[in-house]
Design brief:
The chain has 113 residues and is mainly α. It is built from 4 helices and no strands. α1 runs antiparallel to α2. It is elongated, with a radius of gyration of 19 Å.
């Protein structure tokens, strides 16, 4: 009985992690500017990593493979946000300015009241 519950829980986590990564990929294509794209990719990559690796750990059970999966997950969770920060900082230093507001904010300011 407990094996069935662990299998169902692990598959739910794996599917949610895959959906999170898919949404991040779509966000990377559809969002309007560079900073919004890397923000979406970073957040969904981190959440997808956690969900997928916890799902795989539940499938592996209590073994050496689980310890290795945890070490890989920890490495990815430390390097992913660091790489995103370095990318955003480099873009800012190279002169790519973040947008102050959206296009709808600018339209509202232009209209007379």
């Amino acid at each position: 009985m407990i094996d069935l519950v662990l299998d169902i829980l692990s598959w739910i986590l794996l599917i949610l992690g895959g959906a999170c990564v898919l949404i991040g990929g779509i966000g990377g294509l559809r969002l309007p500017n560079f900073y919004a794209r890397i923000h979406a990719a970073s957040l969904t990559d981190t959440m997808g990593t956690i969900l997928i690796f916890v799902g795989m750990m539940l499938q592996a059970g209590l073994s050496l493979a689980t310890l290795k999966l945890f070490a890989i997950m920890l490495f990815l969770l430390l390097t992913g946000p660091t790489a995103t920060y370095a990318l955003a900082n480099t873009a800012l230093l190279s002169g790519l300015k973040p947008d102050a507001g959206s296009a709808s904010d600018e339209l509202e300011e232009d209209e007379p009241k």
